[in-house]
Amino acid sequence: MKSRSIRILLSLAGLAALTIAAHHIFQVNATTAGLGYLLFVLVVASSWGFIEASVTSMAATLAYNFFFFPPVGTFNIADSHNWVALFSFLATSLIASRLSAKAKMKALDAIERQKDIERLYAFSRALLLTDDSEPFGAQLIRKLTDIFQLNAAALYDRRSGNLFRAGSSSLEAMDAQLRETALDSIPDSYSQPNCWLTPVRLGSDPIASLAVQGPRMSDSILQGVANLVAIGLERERSQHFAQQIEAARQSEQLRTTLIDAMAHEFKTPLTSIKAATTGLLADCRQLTEGQRELLDIADEEADHLKELIDDTVDMARLDSAQIEINPEISDILEIIHEVVHSLRSELEGRLVEISPDEGIRKSAFDRRLVRLAIKQLVDNAAKYSAAGLPLEIRVQQDENTIRLDVTDHGKGIPEREQKRIFERFFRSPSIRQQIPGSGLGLSIAHSILQAHHGDLTVTSQPGRTTFHLILPAEIKGESGERRPHSGN
Fold first, then answer.
1. Residue 143 lies inside a defined structural domain of this protein
2. Is residue 228 domain-resident?
3. Domain shared by 98 and 161, yes or no
4. What is the pLDDT of residue 467?
5. For residues 281 and 346, is the Cβ–Cβ distance under 8 A?
6. For the whole model, what pTM was predicted?
7. Is residue 134 included in any domain, yes or no?
8. What is the per-residue pLDDT across 123-147, written as a single tens digit (0 to 9) for each?
9. Nearest partner of 29 among 82, 88, 94, 95, judged by Cα
10. What domain range is 167 assigned to?
11. Which of 61, 213, 383, 410 has the fewest other C-beta atoms within 10 Å?
12. How many other CB atoms sit within 10 Å of the CB of residue 300?
């Protein structure tokens, strides 16, 4: 208000100087003086505004009447036409000053909008130039404060729960309001002067809230800043996920490499042992009957150990990678007999009843993986039932599917645990300390069947548990075509 009074006084002083020059020094006529006054009013309007121009316009009208309309030196007007001229001058000067002030305001608004756009552009570029030297939210709020010349700014990230501040004022009194705004997406009343609070949304969901204190921001600019903050936070989150995915990929590559290296290290001495037993058995004339039996045992156990290493490596690979199916025409009954033979030590001589339906045909599936899945089911049945109890394996086949049921007569699986039995690492609390295991076998078997577009389910009650393996008798290839089963 004080500055406006000073501007009015300066305008009147300028008007007085113009009057002295026009009347006493140059002695111009009334028309020239009127144009001079009008130009001066326009200059004041374009420089300072309508209020200053209005006061100057009225003062110019009085000076025009006093110094240039007869009788000169009085505020009386002798000729009625001069009244019309005087009021026309007043109206013209007021309208012209109003238009000039409006033009000035529009020009100032345009300049301010241009500055805001430049600030938004600079802020968007700054978001792309962040680094890992400090948290992204801290860098974002500091750049916002610097670019928009704010006194203070605060950002609450709802996802991480972190609150970042920058500027000379900490805005600590608004912590609760920031959290409420991020949760409710509705700005609360402001507790700080010249402070604006807005939710930061991604689509319609609030993900953060922003408070700024400083020069007045229009709603559109504040919303533009909030949108850029949302884009920046989402970009940072995407980059974080990408880094996690890359780290996981590298970890999986390292894990696969270690698995292969360990398999090689195990198989190298095993190959030497197998070569030695095979060589000795080929020329056993110098051996006693007892020595020959021991060599037979060592040779068989070397084969058994190789199978265990291969199965362990396959299990580890399947747990760490996407399952790839390589179908080949195979006999499911042959695979079942191979599995039972390979588990002869685990089965401890117990009876395994294999009951195939008539007409079981060869089908296309991944022989290695299906063998591993069946082995997990038979081994699981042997683990969780008493040594003297038999195991039952029934095989059925129709036009579309092969169904294999593996049944044991153990304690059974509680109903609340049956839905979780195929989860990775899940093991029943009741047997976790009694029976060794990793909780991966059934999960991997389930994944193998799903990769074949089949299924693995379980039904259980005390004294009888059956795992149902369902395998398509024809399998889809990678291109989506169906591969029909083949008969003998």
1. yes
2. no
3. no
4. 94
5. no
6. 0.45
7. yes
8. 888 888 888 788 888 898 889 989 9
9. 82
10. 130-217
11. 383
12. 13
